[in-house]
Specification:
The chain has 216 residues and is mainly alpha-helical. It contains ten helices and no strands. The longest helix is centred in the middle third of the chain and has 27 residues, at 128-154. The termini are far apart.
Length: 216
Amino acid sequence: MARTALTREEVLETAAALVKQHGPTALTMRRLAAELGTAVTSIYWHVGNRESLLDALVERTVADLAAITPHGRTPAARIVSVARALRHELRARPHLVAMVHERGLTERMFLPAQRALAQEVHAAGLRGTRAAEVVRAVQVQVVGHVLVERNRERSPAQSPAETELWQTATTDPPDPALTRALAAPVDPERLFVTSVRALVNGLLGPHGPTPDRRDG
């Protein structure tokens, strides 16, 4: 027996979950209706056809990324917090982000984070071209890091032995601690935070204090 109580938000939430897990091709009206325990006609009544549903999911994704809020005691720390939040959001919904990109709304999706970054760059004392360069550099760092992470996840696992890391090295003798660390699995979150903090600190220069690790 088909259920009668259904909301548009329920439909969008379930559709988003299907896309997140299986990609846009897995989202059919019949499958969505089955997930919700309702009739296909009920789905059409709430969200229209499949293209309208996809448009609604894109708008929902754009709205989700607009909810990023800076945290921290200094502009540098708050810039790092925006970068971390943006990375998390992009990592959490790759299929939905791809849909936004395919519909030509990438710039709109990044606009809220860009505004937040611009505000903190201004608070750090930068203006004009230099301020724009900082905002763009942070955005590129986030997007580039996410792309590298995804490529690594799709590639076969690679765990070189410690001796392999130094076959062509010029350091003599090798640094045992460094060798062990390089042979260990990468912590993507820690690597990202380290790189973005270094980037922000270098770009702000004398206009902003060194980011406080406790604020990240």
